[in-house]
Amino acid sequence: MKKFLFALMFLFLSAASSYAKAVVVNLPAPNKTGGMPLNEAATLRHSEREFRDADLTPQELSDLLYVAAGVNRENGLRVHPVGRGVQDTFVYVFNRDGVYKFDAPSHSLELVTKGDYRQATGTPAYIGRAAVNLVYVQDLKAWESEQKPRETIERWGFAHAGAVMQNVYLFAASKGWNAIVRGSFDENKLRSILELKTHQIITLVQSAGPRP
Fold it and tell me: How confident is residue 15, by pLDDT bands cut at 50, 70 and 90?
């Protein structure tokens, strides 16, 4: 009986280990050169609510996430500015396949749940057609060593999300895509899908993808 239980436990742990490995998606290396000149992208940047129901290629998603919140220095710092060097903002990706958390240091995606939950990020129908809906989440625990008032920490969180959001807008403009940011969403629904803790705050949601 003990041998059977041991074998069963071994199979369970092996299966769990295999599953954990299977839910991490390594993105292609991002393109860090080329693209539209910044002034041109800034001139074209605007909000637009129409999307073609089309998926991004792995390379397009890789490049988008790198510009949004990727690591651009050997010391691990990101393309977007942060207060006091605190990396408190995380990007969650909702696409046709599922919901993923972007891990900037490894430039990979960690599966949160399978399935198309794009429409869960907002009410308008266009949201369900956008190639990706990005949910920006601030983790208050990242500030534990700073001893700052909560209102100050949350203010930085919205500033960080704003920087990421603008990066996505500029990238979308350079690609000829549409994008729009939203501060209105069903927080309880998103918190449930993302399995967030009390110290994690949803700041903004943004849709991006090819035009119709």
Answer: very low
What's the gap between Cα 210 and its chain centre?
Answer: 18
Q: Which tokens is 88 given?
A: 């408190």
In 108-149, alpha helices (H):
none
pTM: 0.89
The answer to whether the beta carbons of residues 94 and 133 sit under 8 Å apart is yes
Q: Which two tokens stand for residue 79?
A: 């393309």
Using CA atoms, how far apart are residues 127 and 182, in angstroms rounded to an integer?
11
| Sheet strands (E) in the chain | 24-26, 89-94, 98-103, 108-114, 132-139, 177-182, 200-210
Burial of 83 (0-12, 13-18, 19+ CB in 10 A): middle
CB 69 within 8 A of CB 101: no
Question: For 19-67, what is each residue's pLDDT tens digit?
Answer: 445 599 999 999 999 999 999 999 999 999 999 999 999 999 999 999 9
What are the structure tokens assigned to 13, written together? 């742990």
110's CB contacts (< 8 A; 6+ apart) are: 23, 24, 25, 100, 101, 103
Nearest Cα to Cα of residue 102 among 89, 91, 113: 91
Q: Tell me how far apart the alpha carbons of residues 66 and 56 are, in angstroms, rounded to a whole number.
A: 14
Q: Which residues, in sequence order, are CB contacts of 192 under 8 Å at separation 6+?
A: none
